[in-house]
Design goal:
With 197 residues, this protein is mostly helical. The chain is built from 7 helices and 2 strands. A two-stranded antiparallel sheet has the order 1-2. It holds the Pfam family ECF_trnsprt.
Length: 197
């Protein structure tokens, strides 16, 4: 019972940290303004590594619900849903592979590479069919308006397809790499303490 309480408390803490990290975003050159690098998946990754993939998904869900309820930026939760899908894909694929393989530095990076690739592919497809059209709708714009806006950052973006290939896909690959690099030393430092070793 005590273990469950401690686990719940720790996951709540990770969710809160993840929520706060959603406000830390860095724009990248050559990418549309709505794509900013953040590191809010790191708490979910740590939770998933320690307690399993579902724990990571729970952290992703709670942080996005908090963000939607407390910021209410008028996007009708499109941004939060997109963040949840991206983060959950990254966390679940990364940790499932890491758990299937023997714990090692190499296998950590194999898991992160798989999770990053999966996130990039899923978000490329999801943005093409769902998120960018939904984003345009809630802003009262057309998809072509979003494309034109994005073209200001990268002249190669001339269509929705070009937007997901030249912006969404590389953006998620870069995001996954940055979060993996930051997570590795944090996880190595916290693991002995959190596992009671």
């Amino acid at each position: 019972m005590r273990g469950k309480v401690r686990r719940t408390a720790f996951l709540s803490l990770l969710s809160t940290i993840g929520f706060l990290l959603m406000f830390v975003e860095i724009p990248l050159p050559m990418f549309p303004a709505f794509l900013k690098i953040g590191v809010s998946e790191i708490p979910a990754l740590i939770g998933a590594i320690l307690f399993g993939p579902l724990a990571g998904v729970a952290v992703e869900l709670i942080k996005n619900i908090l963000h939607f309820l407390l910021t209410n930026q008028g996007g009708m939760a499109v941004g939060e849903l997109s963040n949840f899908v991206a983060g959950s894909t990254f966390v679940v694929v990364s940790v499932l592979l890491m758990r299937k393989l023997k714990q090692s530095k190499v296998n950590f990076w194999l898991g992160m590479a798989a999770g990053t690739t999966a996130m990039a592919i899923v978000m490329t497809i999801a943005n093409y069919f769902v998120f960018i059209p939904a984003f345009a709708y809630v802003l009262g714009m057309s998809v072509q308006d979003i494309v034109g806006w994005s073209q200001e950052a990268n002249s190669r973006i001339t269509s929705l397809w070009a937007l997901v290939i030249y912006a969404i896909l590389p953006f998620n690959l870069i995001k996954g790499l940055i979060e993996a690099v930051i997570t590795y030393p944090i996880y190595n430092r916290l693991r002995p303490v959190l596992q009671g070793k």
